[in-house]
Amino acid sequence: TKSVTLPDLVEKYRRNEKVVAITAYDYITGTIANKAAVDFVLVGDSLAMVALGLPSTSTLTMDEMLHHCRAVSRAVDGPLIVGDLPYGSYEPSDEKAVESSLRMIREGGRVQAIKLEGGARMYSRVQSIVNNAEIPVLGHIGLTPQKMGHVGGFKTQGKSVEAVEKLLDDALALQDAGCFGLVIEAVPAAVAKFITEKLSIPTIGIGAGKHTSGQILVMPDMLGFYDKFTPKFVKKYSNCLDVCTDAVKTYAEEVVSEQFPSAEHSFNLSEKNMKAFEA
Ligand code: KIV
Ligand code: NA
Fold first, then answer.
1. Is there an atom of ligand 1 within 6 Å of 117 CB?
2. Which GO terms describe its biological process (predicted)?
3. pLDDT, tens digit, for every residue of 73-124?
């Protein structure tokens, strides 16, 4: 497989082709993303909820993120891999942000870029990571699940004129600080379009309409694997939880009824040894 590089992504954006991204958390989801040949895979901290069953992303640690980044890396040799910096690993200081980003590259397998949440407040963090550690940074504005205190819950952002102005200021600040792209989450389609047109870096939308430079979805959400909560912006492309549950139920029934394992799934002794064995 030819690996996707950051310049490839930028080229795609310049040619006005949509950038396709999806999250992955382990070897299996990584394999799916790799076979589907998306442009980039985000090992998102959403894994706290959709892969670990935690109530929010706020308790996920750097060590846990790295463990998942390595698992995804073993499956993904095509798409670029972006690692999400967990809550608390970059907010306290520029030094901490650089240190965490370096760990992501050194200990995160094939991770080549990091993502962090927040707007203009993250200006010096992004600058430090890009310029001092020379690690590409993907920004993330709009609904930022690590920053519930600021955004006020899982709800649409950028609905007032002031909020749109703030979003644009944040987007321009992140671009100026050196982000190679921006995730824009849960904002009206017209707002994401407006911001996308003002920028010279790609926007990757999730719940942000069709006018962004690309799209990202959380894999267990779009596959229908996660049944706790599904945001309006998630399209379910499959019904994997039901499909897989049915498969396991059938297996259980066949074990009980002795339909499984049949001869096809059993090892057989040679006739000669069978005779000797029975004698
Ligand atoms: O953690 C995550 O999955 C994300 C995406 C929703 C962009 O941040
Ligand atoms: Na995230």
1. no
2. pantothenate biosynthetic process
3. 999 999 999 999 999 999 999 999 999 999 999 999 999 999 999 999 999 9
Q: How far apart are CA 87 and CA 59, in angstroms?
A: 7
Residues designated catalytic? 185
CA 192 to ligand 1 centroid distance, Å: 17
Q: Residue 202: name the closest of 193, 211, 191, 213 by CA.
A: 213
Residues in the 5 Å CB sphere of ion ligand 2: 44-45, 84
Q: Is the CB of 23 under 6 A from ligand 1?
A: yes
Centre a 10 Å sphere on the Cβ of residue 37 and count the other Cβ atoms it contains.
12
Ligand 1 centroid distance, CA of 62 (Å): 16
pLDDT for 224-247, tens place per residue?
999 888 889 999 999 999 999 999
Contact 138 CB / ligand 1 (< 6 Å): no
* Overall pTM surpassing 0.90 (yes/no): yes
Domains of the chain: 6-238 (3.20.20.60), 243-278 (no CATH)
DSSP labels, 243-279: HHHHHHHHHHHHHHTT-SS-GGGS----HHHHHHHH-
